[in-house]
Amino acid sequence: MATPIAPVKINTGDKIKDQFVVKKKLGEGACGQVFLVDLIQGKGKAAMKVEPLMKDKLDEILKMEVYVLKKLQSSRHVCRLLGSGKTDTYTYMVMSLLGKEVADIRRRLPQRKISAPSTVRIFIQLVKALQDMHEAGFVHRDVKPSNMALGLKNEQVVYLFDFGLARQILLADASGKLKLREPRSKSQFRGTVRYCSPNVHQHKEQGRHDDLFGALYAMIETVTSSLPWKGKPKKETCALKEKTSDQDLCKNCPKSFVEIVGTLRKLKYQDTPPYVQFMEKLRADLPKGVKMTDPFEWNTSPQSQLDDNNNDNKSDRENAERGVGADTVNEVDESIITESNGESASSSKNGGGADYAPEDTLDNL
Ligand SMILES: Nc1ncnc2c1ncn2[C@@H]1O[C@H](COP(=O)(O)OP(=O)(O)OP(=O)(O)O)[C@@H](O)[C@H]1O
Ligand SMILES: [Mg+2]
């Protein structure tokens, strides 16, 4: 088990290092809690992600997130990193505030789906976000609708966040040239069952194409509201990912999706995905006159207002997180669950079964 040295005690009004004042909790995930904070100097608001100090240093993952986010600061599709540090009981990272999560938008729309043109616009930006991340030398390994958000002010920009499961795949050789890291023969399960690529179920080392599989599955769900394996147990999910034809998988999706999945299936760990070609194919699916800068339908159309109070719309995520409900049986939104023992990986993020190659922490990168 990943055991904190002590529980994190944070209250509204707490001042951190004379730089941030805690306002309220924004969210909580496997890795820790996220708070809304006021910036003391410079003014404005930000988000602070907090992780307790762990008994075993290998269980601490926020420092990896800070490391990754720092290296990604030239990308338009990630938060600005505003600060990071450590107190007696926790590590923290302060970043710019994001707007609505893509997962929430879909669930709060009347039909629980986003229109095809808007989905295509989100997908194009995701491909770019992943290209930026991969070129900086990292794979995300948990691409899913609840790790994507729109900007708070610039609501047309898509952001990728939550780098807690990221892995460095490009390393500098003796001459300083970045080289693709050798894949391990078998690695522990990292990701979320519903959105991970078939390779991940087979414990293959995750490459750049696997992140794009995650983006594709996320976008199929976004535009159709479903996936062929949604609500199925993990084993069935794995089998369905293998046997569903590309046509069936991409039924009712924009035309480019089936071409993208066809290409992705042929890619190997070593291959650089054809990002530009994917973006061009997606762009060709946009109806004439639709611009990347147009407001999305939930900001303009009375028929597409987001419903905050629809409990039914919320149940999907809540059930997924609790692992109950017909739609989500055995399918906890299980970032980081290991196949070997079914334990939450926050309990064994870096350690793991003897069969598996160890995960790297920053200490041995
Ligand atoms: N920059 C941000 N601005 C606003 N809210 C944020 C920001 N970062 C995270 N959050 C909120 O906090 C939640 C948890 O964040 P994040 O996904 O990074 O953590 P996690 O512990 O890895 O979560 P999980 O395991 O559920 O994916 C998000 O779903 C979101 O609601
Ligand atoms: Mg997350």
Automatic annotation (TrEMBL):
* GO CC annotation: microtubule cytoskeleton
Superkingdom of the organism of origin: Eukaryota
Instruction: Enumerate the Gene3D superfamilies for this protein.
Output: Transferase(Phosphotransferase) domain 1
Q: Which PROSITE patterns match?
A: PROTEIN_KINASE_DOM (PS50011)
Q: Where is this region: Disordered?
A: 293-365
Name of the protein described by the UniProt record: Protein kinase domain-containing protein
Ordered alphabetically, the record's keywords are: ATP-binding, Kinase, Nucleotide-binding, Serine/threonine-protein kinase, Transferase
Q: What Pfam family does this protein match (any one)?
A: Pkinase
Q: State a single Gene Ontology molecular function.
A: ATP binding
**Residue limits of the Protein kinase domain?**
20-297
Family that this chain belongs to: Belongs to the protein kinase superfamily. CK1 Ser/Thr protein kinase family.
Extent of Polar residues compositional bias? 298-308, 337-349
List where Basic and acidic residues composition bias occurs. Answer: 311-321
Q: What is the lineage of its organism?
A: Eukaryota, Metazoa, Ecdysozoa, Nematoda, Chromadorea
